[in-house]
């Protein structure tokens, strides 16, 4: 008979990697293994860096195994907006909005974030259906598997 994987905790973690890039990781802690979804606006992470990040989360979750995959989210077109993208992804996830289904407009994201801070309110980021975009959206669906020996 198969093992039932019961989710005991969920969390969203903003992770600063390589001293120059922010990603968002949605973690499902469960027994006997945990899994996470990586929301990264500048894919791909190098295999070594992805391995380091996943090893860290494996230790933090005390799981025997950790599965992860990359979410197919809008990619930034500059080298400096990754933090704003992770905030937009996390905010919309908190409001039940799946960031994989939408694109964002950077200038509107910046204004929206500034308004949220100034008004001390948190509202979802404006989004647009992906099918209307001509921005290159990277599609990654492979799972990686790690475990301690």
Largest sheet data: 5 strands, mixed
CATH architecture: 3-Layer(aba) Sandwich
Mean model confidence by pLDDT: 76
Q: Quick one: how many beta strands?
A: 7
Overall geometry comes to globular
Count of individual helical segments? 3
The total domain count is 1
Low-confidence stretches: 132-149
The percentage helix is: 25-40%
CATH superfamily: Adenoviral Proteinase, Chain A
Structural class computed from helices and strand pairing: alpha+beta
Layout of SSEs?
Elements (H helix, E strand, L loop, with lengths): L5 E12 L3 E11 L1 E7 L7 H15 L3 E6 L11 H13 L7 E2 L2 H14 L8 E2 L13 E5 L2
Parallel strand pairs: 3-4
Antiparallel strand pairs: 1-2, 2-3, 4-7, 5-6
